[in-house]
Amino acid sequence: MNPLKHVAIIMDGNGRWGLRYKNSRNAGHKAGLSTVEKIIKETIKNKIKFLTLYAFSTENWRRPKTEINYLFKLLENFLKDKIEDLNKQNIRLKIIGIKSFYPKLNKLLDISEKKTFKNNKLQINLALNYGSKSELVNACKVLVKNKDKINESNLTKYLQTEGIPDPDLLIRTGNTKRLSNFLLWQLAYSEIFFEKKLWPDFNEKDYNKVIKNFKKIKRNFGKI
Ligand code: IPE
Ligand code: IPE
Ligand code: MG
């Protein structure tokens, strides 16, 4: 049975779900938020310590302004409503990505991170304005500036995931098989599951099925 410390998820398919059932992409984003809550609960039940959720990529700025605004408003309201509750559940929230949004959201993200900093039941890494290529370029810049020796462990130190074990398992919902600039370095040896279901339809049962199958995989890491 493989140990499972860290699950990363590309939560894809909200827009298509919204268009299909509610004639609105944004309705799909709203529905996707309920899946986030279900999956957080189930992650705790499974005693998994790290959950990384891809919520907004550096490329997602190419979407229409109305959709981008809706997404951030949704996040803002979610944090306002739930951060106390997450804190009570001993959950830590960490943002990975570049935190440069509108002032109110920046502040809320800072407050949420600070408030939950010491919690240790589950760490949720929310990938927001995150792009793996820019993360790697920034890490290289710091390496050079600090005149550090260029090697794997020094580069890892300057990634936003510093101190977090690499994901054991990556799940992408939404019937698309690509990484979309997510954790390119950190996923080097992760087990990858592509799920056909759109994110708002993904549920606890689907999640547990993936976890069960993950646990049975023979992970080699180059060995035999
Ligand atoms: C993923 O769902 C969520 C975000 C990128 C914010 P999408 O919005 O990409 O949904 P589809 O892929 O268009 O259906
Ligand atoms: C990846 O989904 C980003 C998030 C889930 C936040 P996208 O829907 O943006 O990916 P592409 O553009 O289809 O590859
Ligand atoms: Mg998509």
Verbal overview:
The chain has 224 residues and is of the alpha/beta class. It has one domain (6-130, 169-216): Undecaprenyl pyrophosphate synthetase. The protein has helices at 14-22, 25-45, 65-88, 103-116, 132-145, 152-157, 204-216, and strands spanning 6-10, 50-57, 91-96, 122-130, 169-172, 191-194. A six-stranded parallel beta sheet has the order 3-4-2-1-5-6, with helices on both faces. Helix 4 links the parallel strand 3 (91-96) and strand 4 (122-130). Helix 1 (14-22) packs across helix 2 (25-45) and helix 2 runs parallel beside helix 3 (65-88). The chain starts with 5 loop residues before the first strand and ends in an 8-residue tail after the last helix. The model has no long low-confidence stretch (mean pLDDT 98). The structure holds 3-methylbut-3-enyl trihydrogen diphosphate (2 copies) and magnesium ion. The site of one 3-methylbut-3-enyl trihydrogen diphosphate (IPE) has 10 residues, from helix 1.
Helix amount: 40-55%
Shape estimate: globular
Q: What is the name of the CATH architecture?
A: 3-Layer(aba) Sandwich
CATH class: Alpha Beta
Count every beta strand, where a strand is a DSSP E run of 2 or more residues.
6
- Largest beta-sheet details: 6 strands, parallel
